[in-house]
Amino acid sequence: MDNPSGPAPATDSHLPMGLRTPLRDDAFARSDDEKISAISGHFEAIMRELGLDLTDDSLAGTPRRVAKMFVKEWFKGLDPANRPEVRMFENRYDYHQLLVERDITLFSCCEHHFVPIIGKAHVAYLPGEHVVGLSKLNRVVQYYARRPQVQERLTRQISEELKQSLGTDDVAVLIEADHLCVMSRGVNDTSSSTLTSEYGGRFATDEALRREFLRQIGK
Ligand SMILES: Nc1nc2c(ncn2[C@@H]2O[C@H](COP(=O)(O)OP(=O)(O)OP(=O)(O)O)[C@@H](O)[C@H]2O)c(=O)[nH]1
Ligand SMILES: [Zn+2]
Fold first, then answer.
1. Nearest-angstrom CA–CA distance, 148 and 178
2. pLDDT tens digits, residue range 100-132?
3. Ligand nearest to the CA of 152
4. Contact indicator for 98, 171 with CB cutoff of 8 Å
5. CB within 8 A of 86, min separation 6: which ones?
6. Residue from 109, 153, 181, 184 whose mutation best tests the ligand 1 pocket (most atoms within 8 A of CB)
7. For residue 177, which of 111, 109, 106, 113 has the smallest C-alpha distance?
8. Where is the GTP cyclohydrolase I domain (predicted)?
9. What is residue 49's three-state secondary structure?
10. CA distance 104 to 219
11. From 112, 183, 192, 196, mutation site for ligand 1 pocket: most ligand atoms within 8 A of C-beta
């Protein structure tokens, strides 16, 4: 959704300072279409500098394609207008055991190199008086993944959002991901992967519960 110019809610104002994605105050002063036009021009300059011929049929549309991909797909989680609404339902089933949403597809982008981070997120919580629609767990993961990220902050942002939305500290998040910046350049290591986790409430204190979560996600 485009933001008209004017004050917009600051991204992550609901999160503690240290967990917020660093953004300028005027981050949403321009509409998505204005950003796509500007980024397209900047990316065209990069391609020119690399010596590419922008009159080539196959390359001509690339600057705009990349700009659109950045604004509308890869980085759409920067815009608070895209923050998913997480509605809770009364726990009529009286279900209070572990609920695990595992193997959530995760596409993110390394904020140091602007190349993909690809992996899976596993999240769990202990339902109290309310339960959440399952897809909302996936949506929360996707919202925070679709930003320039480091895996540690992504893990904690998802955990904090779920604690607030679900109204409980009993939340677990584990992310396993491959960083293309490690695989395709620099150390060029294609076999290592990165695991991060955050355990809140009873997951932090109850080792048996944590073990059960890890067993259920196959760890
Ligand atoms: N902690 C953390 N580091 C990350 C993540 N993604 C990438 N990095 C690291 O960020 C670091 C950036 O370090 P620099 O030394 O400035 O960059 P570089 O010269 O490209 O480093 P090399 O990758 O070692 O070639 C690298 O070590 C990356 O592996 C992440 O999600 N979390
Ligand atoms: Zn990187």
1. 15
2. 999 999 999 999 999 999 999 999 999 999 999
3. 1
4. no
5. 132, 136, 139, 140, 161, 165, 166
6. 181
7. 106
8. 40-217
9. helix
10. 15
11. 112
Q: Give the atom of ligand 1 at the shortest distance from the alpha carbon of 154.
A: 31
Distance CA 72, CA 67 (A): 8
pLDDT at 2 over 80: no
For tokens 């604690």, what's the residue? 163
109 is catalytic: no
Tokens read off for 96:
């209070």
Cβ-count burial of 59 within 10 angstroms (0-12 exposed, 13-18 middle, 19+ buried)?
Answer: middle
Whether residue 181 is annotated as binding a ligand: the answer is yes
Cα(28)–Cα(74) distance, integer angstroms? 16
* Burial degree of 174 (CB within 10 A; 0-12, 13-18, 19+): buried
For the residues 165-186, what does the mean pLDDT come to?
98
Indicate the pLDDT class of residue 166, thresholds 50, 70 and 90: very high
